[in-house]
Amino acid sequence: MVNLLLAAATLLCVLGCAWLALAMDVHWKQVRTDQPSESTAKVLRLLGSLSLFASLVLCLFTDHASMASLVWVMLLAAATLIVAFTFSWRPRLFSVLIFWAKAAS
Amino acid sequence: MSTSTLSTRHVIARIGAGVLGGYAFVWGFIALGLAGFYAVGLPFHDAEALSNILGFLLFLVVFLWAFAASNLKRVWMILVGGGLLMTGIGALIQQSLL
Amino acid sequence: MFQNFRLSMAWLHTWFGLVLGFVLMAVFFFGALSVFDREIDRWAIPESRFEPQPMPSFDTLLKPVFEGMQPSKESIDFARDKVNGPMPERFDTIVTWGAYTTHRDPVLTIFAGYEVPNAKEPDVTVWGNRTIDPRTGVAFPDDQLKIGSGFFYPLHYSLHFHWANLGYWIVGFASLVMLAALVSGVVMHRKIFRELFTFRPKKSTQRSTLDLHNLTGVVALPFHFFFAFTGLVIFAGIYFPVSHTQMKPLHDQHEVIEAQETGLPHDRAGVPAPIASVDAMVVEAQRRWAERGMGGDVGFLTLRHVGDTNGYVSIYRAGTDRIALTGQGIHFKASTGEVLREDLPPTAVESINEFLTGLHLQHFRHWMLRWLYVLGGLAGCVCIATGFIFFVEKRKRQYAKEGSQNGRIVDALAVTTVTGMLLATLGILIANRLLPASLPFGWPGRGDLEEYFFWGTWVVAMAHAFLRSAPVVQGEINPAWREQCLALAVLAPVTVILNWVTTGDHLLKTLGEGYWPVAGLDLSILVGGVLALIAARHLRRREQGAPVQGATDFAGAGVQHG
């Protein structure tokens, strides 16, 4: 159960970082040829922040608060690295995270 | 990087200010903090831990400042003078507590 | 000295980072290994490959072991000039006995401190240590080196350079520089958020190295900052011994007041007294912890003024589920077993201090956080190593034009501290598996020889790095990078095979049994070997003048070694 919660926290952390990155023009363009609209970028930022927050909540749910804060901060580092390296070598993988999003007209 | 204007002597004086001056200043701060926090009622080990924690953060600040400040002489004076002053006040507080 | 703030920060970052970076590489890498120091101990001492044990019975097992102990020869020699007249044959006045264990320790380390008669200062104490099997009380040989907790771990804070504590001071200064480098790095880096997720391996080496430097520095910024900072806080007593020098009178006065307040005697009474059942005290302590809703195991057990009527026993709960190492101390009168005192809940400052030191020392149970710490430490290594490479890349044209040797020296030192350090790490593990259990009379101890192999390998790697460094002057790659990567790729499986041959613990067996201390290290070494091989192939392609694609991750691949 604990492992499951931590796995979910990790996944949410990666998703959150990925959405926050996709809200930036330069990374969006690595995934798709168009440009995100202003409102899409806003939604992506919101999704990203919510995921990171949910990840923190899961960490707090799993461990004593002092430990959970460390786990979450370190997870952010790991997730950022994963997202950055995915953009370097396999950016298209992230297209699934924005399949619903409309480009700017 | 513009290093043309740097004389070796000046660089050594800068590093000395950051390292030695910073050390003297932080020593004074920790001595003053230890005696001062204890005098105002903190438990001894709390006073010690708190002044250490703040002391290292202060060291970082004054170390950076020693390189960023324009007037090196003033840096030396403030760090060494301030260090001595705080060490002295710490000693006086200690004396009054014994 | 500079036109503006940003330039002065850049100067500081470049030059302090360069000089102390070589120290910081070792600190970060061996710090990362120290996350699994206990597990590396298991690998190095096959007799200790069994499950972690709880604190054993004091009355039946620990007490006889403690009674048979005496201070070590080194400790007696160290105290010799603090004493008037000769040292006694036997030390009978026991200041303290203690045993500390965590949820990761199969073996138990115990220590005993003894009063020295005729000492010039009253608090001169000589110490003895022993590592025992907590199931039987049998001691492990003294010359067995715990490579994790006894070599890599102290290496990362003392460099094993004990003359005048100089190693501690060098590491302490390097930590301050690390903090300064982080702040100045943030000041220099104009697009910290815009380029947070940016690594462009296909750009020029200089660009992609800087990307990797920024990426590994920024993503783990809290880790880097807090580990450098808390490292300083942990050793504050060495760096700023204020309360043992200038403020010693206040400190001593406080100790006496504290003894009065807590009822825990500061000194011996001089009246002999027997020790009541300590096991019963442990049961009582655990009952009281359970009452507080935090039942748990004993982490630290210590006796003071042993054999005296003022003697007392302190029992601390293991901080397995907390950041703090231990806590909830309960103190008993040694001769009767009555409770003298329960520690008060920690004050705010105490909690902060325990959190800061505990997050660095990490004796808690949280395997994922441990691996994340390893990641943070290796990210630090990549950050520093790419710093070196960027330094050389940025200046290589200028150096080539001037015929300067500076780039060559920096690059050779970078080889030494990246692949050379990894070779030395494998060197000590290989020596540990190859040296016979008992050595001929007159030889150094087995553990000492292992350490010589470590330093010897490192020196050879350094010599190799310098001997092969000529191409750097023309702005080309030092072939030592590739050759040492190849050596790593060969030695990594050799290390794992030697473990198999000498102990019978091959990966299928350790994985099948779920014995992770050994399986985990073997797997990490193999992964490191594979990464080294990939790096070597990239480097070969680069040396042959192929496009630069992917070539810059060699530093990253190199240090990914567990």
Describe, in plain words, how this protein is organized in 3D.
The complex is a heterotrimer of chains A (105), B (98) and C (562). Chain A has 4 helices and no strands. By secondary structure, chain A is mostly helical. The longest helix of chain A is centred in the middle third of the chain and has 25 residues, at 38-62. The model of chain A has no long low-confidence stretch (mean pLDDT 92). By secondary structure, chain B is mainly α. Chain B has one domain. Chain C has helices at 5-34, 37-44, 58-67, 73-79, 147-158, 166-188, 205-219, 221-234, 236-239, 248-262, 278-291, 348-361, 367-402, 406-434, 446-467, 479-503, 507-513, 516-543, 554-559, and strands at residues 94-100, 108-115, 125-132, 298-304, 312-318, 326-333, 339-342. In chain C, helix 6 (166-188) packs antiparallel against helix 8. Chains in contact: A-C, B-C. Chains B and C meet through helix 1, helix 2 and helix 3 of B and helix 1, helix 6, helix 8, helix 10 and helix 12 of C.
Show unreliable segments of chain C: 548-562
Order of helices and strands of chain C: HHHHEEEHHHHHHHEEEEHHHHHHHH
Number of DSSP E strands of chain C:
7
Helix content of chain C: 55-70%
Mean pLDDT of chain B: 93
Reading the helices and strands of chain B in chain order gives: HHH
Q: Largest interface here, residues on each chain?
A: B-C, 43 and 38 residues
Provide the descriptors you would attach to this structure in a database record.
heterotrimer; B: 98 residues; mainly alpha; 3 helices; elongated; C: 562 residues; alpha+beta; seven-stranded antiparallel beta sheet; 19 helices; 9% strand
Per-chain topology:
The complex is a heterotrimer of chains A (105), B (98) and C (562).
Chain A: H1 2-22, H2 25-31, H3 38-62, H4 65-89
Chain B: H1 8-39, H2 44-68, H3 72-97
Helix pairs in contact in B: 1-2, 1-3, 2-3
Chain C: H1 5-34, H2 37-44, H3 58-67, H4 73-79, E1 94-100, E2 108-115, E3 125-132, H5 147-158, H6 166-188, H7 205-219, H8 221-234, H9 236-239, H10 248-262, H11 278-291, E4 298-304, E5 312-318, E6 326-333, E7 339-342, H12 348-361, H13 367-402, H14 406-434, H15 446-467, H16 479-503, H17 507-513, H18 516-543, H19 554-559
Antiparallel strand pairs in C: 1-2, 1-4, 2-3, 4-5, 5-6, 6-7
Helix pairs in contact in C: 1-5, 1-6, 1-13, 1-14, 2-5, 2-18, 6-8, 7-13, 8-12, 13-14, 14-15, 14-16, 15-16, 16-18, 17-18
